[in-house]
Structures are given as structure tokens and as C-alpha cells.
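Researcher: We're teaching a course module on how sequence relates to structure. For the next exercise, students receive a sequence and then see the predicted structure as C-alpha cells, so they can try to spot secondary structure elements on their own. Here is the exercise chain.
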Amino acid sequence: MKARIVLLAAVLTIGFCLPLQAAENIKLGVVTKPGSAQNVVADKFKELLEAKSNGDWTVTIYDSGVLGNETEMLQQIQMNTLHIGIITGGPFDTFTPIVRVINYPFLFKDNAQADEILDGPLGQEILDGLEPMGFKGLCFSENGFRNLTNSKRAVKTPEDLKGLKIRVMNSALHKTIWRALGANPTPMAWPIYTELQQGVIDGQENPLWVMEVYKFYEIQKYMTMTRHVYSPHIDVASLKWWRNLDAKDQALIAECMKGAAKFQRKDNRDKDAARIKLLQEKGMQIEMHPDVDAFRQKVASLAGSDMFKDPAVHDLLVKMLEAVK
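Model: And here is the predicted structure for the students to work with:
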């Protein structure tokens, strides 16, 4: 009897000395540096998930492209060596044509319309369409409406683009758009400051926050508010990893990512007016009212092009164009 009591005491002692179960850690990758739109989402997601899970989940953020460019990070997500990425919509083009729909030029008239569509059933179709490629689409945060900058001359009409070498993402659609507009599109991975500074490329196109955070006002004199593409980030997880989570954890992670995305979209938009003022103060010449109709006419035929020949992609584009009328 005494031996049993001693054995029980030993077991209890060992049990109390065992370490607590380690928190589950999520590896999250972004290509941009702190302060960027992707990083705002990542930081807020980390804050929300760690708080709501009482520390049961932790998030390690790998930023500034330490894991590679966005295409390489998407490959890591497919292989389940990276759990989550905040990825610009364009690079998904090399994995599935379904994302071309949200990068269609001049699709959304404003932020409210973009939110209505992307947070609704049509946006969910796009997220669901990523699963065959090994991605779990969680939600959309944003880059924002893209605008043109260059170091050569003011641009008001498509004719002013002739001969300009413009950096674009690694996206067949983005190359097609800028070729149709009359520029010389040059795919190039991020970052691109040195290439702009050295004149390897004349210009680039990105939302306003990029001009501020990456100090493009130092090397790009002209900006044109073309707002030619609304550029979302697609916040995605490894489908293989996701399917191994229990339903409760899936729901919590999805809730926190959606909360982070909504926070970031508002934060990004609230700062745009101040960004324009800052860029002007830094010496950028900003064309606030380009001939948008002329730009739009140059790309009007894209809906019937090979970019959207896949029946499922074409059908979704038709539904999207109808929804934004």
C-alpha cells in the first residue's frame, strides 16, 4: 500500500513538472518592409490572434522579402513550408487565371464598390477558385488603386506613354494592360528602387502608400492618378495546413484575418489625402485629372482577349462587369 502511495506521489510530481503545451506558431510572409500595407495586415492579425487565443497561437512575421519574392512565397505556401501570406493579386496570375478578374482595368469605380464585390459572393468565388492550386483564400485586404509614376515626363493621355519602360508585376494581364496602353511593360520582382534610380526602368505603377513608404518621390518626378487597377491583397493560407486544423481554430484564424483586413483597408484609405499632400511637398508633379476615358478605351477590348478565354474565368468576369454597372 505504501509503495502505491509513493508511486502515485511520484506520478503527480512528474505531472506538475511537465512543461505546458507549447503555443502553435504561424509563419506569415510578406515581401514588403514595416509600415507597408501588407505589414499593417500582418501586424494586426498577429495582435488579434495572439490576444483572442490567450497565447495559444503565436505569429512570426517574415517581412522585407526574406523568404523570397511573392511568387516564391506562394510556392512555399503550396508546399506547406509557409503557413500564410499577404500577397498582391497580380502574382497569382502564374498559378491560376481566375485572379485576372479582380485585376481587370477600371473595374471598380471606388473603394465602397470594391468592398461590396470582394466581400460578397463574387469575391468568395475567387477565393474558392484558389483551392485547386493549394491555397486557402481567407479574405481580401488591399494595396489600393494603382497610379503611374515616371522620371521622364508628365502623362495625361495614353499617347504620353509611348516609349516609357514601366515596371509591372509578374502577371500576364498586367503586361497586356500596359502594352495596350502604349508603354513598354517590364516584369520585375520587388523591390525596384535601385532599378528606378539607375534608369533601368523609367517608371512603375502602384498605390499611393508605396510612393511614400519607399520614397519614390526621390527618384520619380511625375505621377498620374490613373487609378487604372484596384489592387487587392489576397490573404491566403496553405490548404494542406488549413485542412489539418480543427474547426474551432479555422474559425478563429479566419475571424482574425478578416478583422485585420478591414482594419488595414480603413487605415490605408484614411491616409491617402495626406499622402498626396506629402508627395507634392516633396516635389512630385501630380496629374490629378488625366484623360481616364482615353485610357479606358485603350483597354476596352481586353474582356474578349485570350487573357479571359478560360470559360470559368470569362463567366466570372461577365458577372463582375454586370455587378459594377
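Model: If you want an answer key for the exercise: The CA atoms of residues 105 and 236 lie 23 Å apart. The chain has two domains: 23-143+231-270, 147-228+272-302.
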